[in-house]
Write the structure tokens for this entry.
Amino acid sequence: MKLAVAILISGSGSNMVKLVKSMDDEHPAFPSVVISSRSDAPGLKKAQDLGVPTEVIDAHYFKKNHLDFEKELIQTLKFYNVEIICLAGFMKILSKKFIDNFRDRILNIHPSLLPKYRGLNTHARAIEANDPIAGCSVHLVTPELDGGPILAQSEVLIKKNETEKSLASKVLLEEHVLYPKVLLNFSNQIRKKEL
């Protein structure tokens, strides 16, 4: 039995596409569902074009109607028998209660060399600090924002005339390589534990 993976997105879903394409016949996991916190996320159509089921749990709708976003999310994950969650540009902070429900099963990709520059505006902050290198990190999600154990990192050089935009596109290319590799290793480790 392959491990069911949910990929959570809020935007274009470029990392989601790389993760989905990486889960081939030999892979121990498969893309079970792509869930978006926004109904207008361009990544939804990309997932549908790749034949992956999609669900929308609109954060604004839930807030407006005083409904519990995470309760709905957990029900959706259970419906798809999800065993691994990959956050890929998912712009919603998950509660400790939710994270504890899926302890050591949630991965996130972050566009900085953690523990540096947790949170937002990572590229601007790296350039401002005159850092020689930037990069991305894949880490396990814990209740501390961008604070979970780092599983892998990839570095890029920051050039003298680097802009936030040029650095972001360089780091994104590294993310596209790094995240599928980490997911493969992580899936293999879970598979071994379950045998």
